[in-house]
Design goal:
The complex is a heterodimer of chains A (111) and B (114).
Chain A: E1 4-5, E2 11-14, E3 19-25, E4 33-38, E5 45-50, E6 54-58, E7 61-66, E8 71-76, E9 85-92, E10 99-101, E11 105-110
Chain B: E1 4-6, E2 10-13, E3 19-25, E4 31-38, E5 42-49, E6 56-57, E7 64-70, E8 73-78, E9 87-94, E10 104-105, E11 109-113
Parallel strand pairs in B: 2-11
Antiparallel strand pairs in B: 1-3, 3-8, 4-5, 4-9, 5-6, 7-8, 9-10, 9-11
The chains are: A mainly beta (111), B mainly beta (114).
Chain lengths: 111, 114
């Protein structure tokens, strides 16, 4: 069974601090990874994708991938209350079209 | 911007009714997906479609069917709605073969079956 594991949280972070969200995956054949943000009652929206080992930065967001350890993370710098949401991690399976989803981590940014 | 449009944000239906949920995307994507999302259960795949007239069962297809007669439209059908099908339904699309391309989701339909 191919799986993506996330801590469900909630993860509570003070405003202005760095929020660190983590994800592990079981399928070594996975090549691409995605972070989605989902506000309560809304649909998921893509915020970062990564497919090479190392870091990828986009504004306040940094995605990190370590294929040897089968580990993906998302760092949010200068956290804002508007970052409070559930963050979903997903891995592209070897079928090349179907994403395997984690259950999501609920992030709370405290003013 | 890719747009995925789901026809209704909120629906209330009666037990036993046949329910149609419509999804339309405007970017010529081959792959389309239907998920349901329930608290504590995450995203669960109901059906997906590689291309026009193609469909595959996902993890929880029981009680559902789908139709894809045109590339841009993917419909989810609840043959006889039951209260355990009360959920948020999410449609998504992506282009075929683009491994580094994630899904684009519609805004979701919150279905209540009474």
């Amino acid at each position: 069974q191919k799986e993506v594991e996330q801590n469900s949280g909630p993860l509570s972070v003070p405003e202005g601090a760095i929020a660190s969200l983590n994800c592990t995956y079981s399928d070594r054949g996975s090549q691409s990874f995605f972070w989605y943000r989902q506000y309560s009652g809304k649909s998921p929206e893509l915020i970062m994708s990564i497919y090479s080992n190392g870091d990828k930065e986009d504004g306040r967001f940094t995605a990190q991938l370590n294929k040897a350890s089968q580990y993906v993370s998302l760092l949010i710098r200068d956290s804002q209350p508007s970052d409070s949401a559930t963050y979903l991690c997903a891995a592209m399976g070897d079928s090349n079209y179907q994403l395997i989803w984690g259950a999501g981590t609920k992030l709370i940014i405290k003013p | 911007d890719v747009k995925v449009t789901q026809s209704s944000r909120y629906l209330v239906k009666r037990t036993g009714e046949k329910v149609f949920l419509e999804c339309v995307q405007d970017m010529d994507h081959e792959n389309m997906f239907w998920y349901r999302q329930d608290p504590g259960l995450g995203l669960r795949l109901i059906y997906f479609s590689y291309d026009v007239k193609m469909k595959e069962k996902g993890d929880i297809p029981e009680g559902y069917s789908v139709s894809r007669e045109k590339k841009e439209r993917f419909s989810l059908i609840l043959e006889s709605a039951s209260t355990n099908q009360t959920s948020m339904y999410l449609c998504a699309s992506r282009p075929q073969g683009a491994q580094n391309y994630g899904y684009t989701f519609g805004s979701g339909t919150r279905l209540t079956v009474v």
